Fold:
Amino acid sequence: MSLLDVEDITVKFGGITALDRLSFEIDEGEICALIGPNGAGKTTLFNVVSRIYDPTEGSVTFDNIDLLSLAPHAISQKGVYRTFQNLALWPGMTVLQNVMVGDHTSTKANFVTSALRLGTRGEEEESKVRAWKALEELGLEEHAFHPAAGLPFGTLKRIELARALIGEPRLLMLDEPASGLTHSEVDELAEAIRKLRDDHNLTVLLVEHHMRMVMGISEKVVVLNFGKKIAEGPPSTVREDPSVIEAYLGSSAT
Structure:
């Protein structure tokens, strides 16, 4: 049964069509990769699902909920979380504090009560426990009390994953998580994503250019080119599709 249903999504910016009637579904517990050349519309789709952009037409349904009817801040309350291409961490905060930021949907504290520390001590302790557990799952506990500034790039990527995990997502959208990583770091990240999916029954939507990672962990691949879907299916089928090879993978793709 599908958890996310994207139907006929079109996004236009002036005279430019960034997405052209894009439709696909993701089953619960599935890892689905969205691939294509730069400018194909992948991040635009992420921004529609996370309510940064309003589509020109079409619908997005998550667990029978019309996501497009929700305000952006309400998306995470429904279990939809995302990471970004560019790291969105606070360098001066500790790793533990950065991860705790992802727990905002589970607490009643707001900016004023947190700043004045009014009735938030119990929630803060509970959030620390959840954050520590997320760090342990990703092998980051040794960095918990260190500032995020100066840590290796691969470590920072895993911190972002931990911050998303603490919110107990059902759908985790990862925007180029392997960007800038070494080959060994990519392999470690791929294994971490697969393990998190299995341990937490996550559904994952992945935008990624690293094809070995995409083909290694995805059950479904959706291919975009100039805003249109040109292929969809299991990795073994998509990688042999002539239109995909011509548009993106190239004849030497592995």
